[in-house]
Amino acid sequence: MKPEAVNKLVLLALVLFISVVFLSMIQQFLMPLFMAGLFSAMLSPAHDWLTKRLGGKERLASMLTILAIVFLVLGPLSILIGIVVAQAISVGHSVTPFVQELMNEPTTMSRYLEKLPFYQELLPYRNFILGRAGELVGIVSNFLVNSLSSMTRLTVSAVFGLIIMLYVMFYFLSMGDVLLRKILYFLPLQDKDEQRLLQRFTSVARATIKGTLIIGLMQGSICGLAFALAGIQGPVFWGTVMAVTSVIPAFGTAIVWGPALVILAVLGDFQGVAILVVVCGLVAGNLDNLLRPRLVGKDTEMHDIFVLFSTLGGISMFGILGIIIGPIIAALFITTWEIYGDSFRDYLPDVELIFKTNNVPPGGKEQQGAESED
Questions:
Q1: What is the sign of the dihedral through the CA atoms of 104, 107, 110 and 114?
Q2: Integer Cα distance of 160 and 163 in angstroms
Q3: What is the extent of the structural domain holding 310?
Q4: Which sign does the torsion angle of CA 204, 206, 210, 212 carry?
Q5: Predicted confidence (pLDDT) per residue in 5-64, tens digit
Q6: 299 and 165 housed in the same domain
Q7: How many folded domains does the chain comprise?
Q8: Which of 65, 207, 297, 326 would bridge with 310, disulfide CB 3.0–4.6 Å?
């Protein structure tokens, strides 16, 4: 092996080793760094406009942009989080005695079931329903207790990550172009492929954030109002939860208001059931179908099944931020394979699918027709 080849192999191994060690060292800061880069790319047009207005002072424009985020976004958001936490604690305290009563006295659940208008039809399945209801109640109880107990730790971690994100955004806004050119220079890809990946990243990120914020805010507000009209405690808390779940395709806010509807029906509150069906089911449920195509458009260029599994997988891997990161990774996955297909087109075989009907071989009908004519 030539000395130059050995030198390059050793250098490549050294680069990979040092990179892995460095990324492992800053692992806890990778998510704030990623979000800082993402939001910096989203706010880049506003920063450029502000820089021109300030006579080319990029650092001052970056500082004003960060201050605008703090006062216009984080200020109201912190107030909302305070209300949500207070109502979450209140909901936890009020739900716990009710849950304990249902778990310790099965006859209580039976009394609630007897109030249903179709109780006679459910009577043969009474024991099965009671068993499954007990399991569901236990799961909900454990979820509330565990969520409330870890809320303080998550809040401190979120605030720390937010400070780092804002600090990094200050530098990304003023020198992000230089850093991006460096990263693209070190990637051994053609410029058109790099631009394709970059355009795909920014378009999907923009579409996901736009659709998530606007649709989530509207659906959460409408469903929270429905909970308030139905007399359910903690409407702001439940509205916030539904704003988060609204990003999950096919299920959305129904993950929250569906069980609430069942509980109201068991309790005999059919007025509340009607409110949830009309406001949450008909109004908020159709809001996503009406607004998402107009707000998001075709920027994601992904099938609904990709959006569903990338969102759920992103949440399971990255937490709440997976709502944004999951679809971005899925879009980059699709784009990478498209680039692979274009680059290796000369080496990939042509594929033709032949669909057979009733086990008739290709040309069978034509042959039979020819025989009948003869």
A1: negative
A2: 5
A3: 197-345
A4: positive
A5: 888 888 889 989 998 999 899 888 888 888 888 888 888 888 888 888 888 888 888 888
A6: no
A7: 2
A8: 326
